[in-house]
Design brief:
Blueprint (H helix, E strand, L loop, with lengths): L1 E6 L3 H17 L4 E6 L2 H10 L6 E5 L7 H11 L4 E6 L15 E4 L3 H20 L1 E6 L2 E6 L3 E7 L2 E6 L3 E3 L5 H8 L4 E5 L2 E4 L3 E4 L3 E4 L4 E3 L5 H12 L1
Parallel strand pairs: 1-2, 1-3, 3-4, 4-5
Antiparallel strand pairs: 6-7, 8-9, 8-12, 9-10, 11-12, 13-14, 14-15
Length: 236
Amino acid sequence: MIRIALCDDNHIFLEEFQDFVEKYLVNHCVKGEVHIYDSGGELIKQLEKDNDFFDIIFLDINMPHVDGIEAAEQVRAINTNVILIFLTSIEDRVYETFQFNTFRFIRKNCMLIELDECLDKALRIVENEKTSYSFKTKEGMVKLSAQEILYFIYINRHVEVKTINNYYILTVTRFQDVINLFSNKDFICIHRGCIVNVKYIKVINRLCIVLDNNEKLSISRYKVNEVFRAFTNYAR
């Protein structure tokens, strides 16, 4: 079940936007709920009751009392992972939202053009976060989501996985099976023995990539252009 929040003080626009989102969910056979709020304060009250209640939040930047920027600051204090998408008709305030790990911006006058593409990518991320994969390791069975995995590497005849907080040596797992499973989930092969979560690539050059944890991994010269394209597309 996907839960989406829409927050905008313009009731006419809010109802219209809700209708578009609900039609998207129906047309794409996505089971979900759409909750609407006409103020940032009401949205925050819901998050204070259940900080993981929403998967995606659409926030209008310009609202009275608690505007989108202030609401985003409070949202991030409660939940650091929820996908934040800003709605705006005044683009000169967009730069203020960068600090909140903003996923996308939708211009109100381009809503019909930009909404579907935005939801396509947002829901793919939510699906990856909600889906867990079980692996047999030397320590026993572990369950991991794609979003917590930094990379898989084939070394010393074993597949090893590095996560944000841990490191595991997998057993009875072929590296090709890992590639087949994760290549369509924003993972990219940087050489024939390593597949990396594009989300965590911070720097890329012709010799290596640097991850968010400052770990460096060598990159094959035959893979540089492919990795760079994946990195650029994800950043967009």
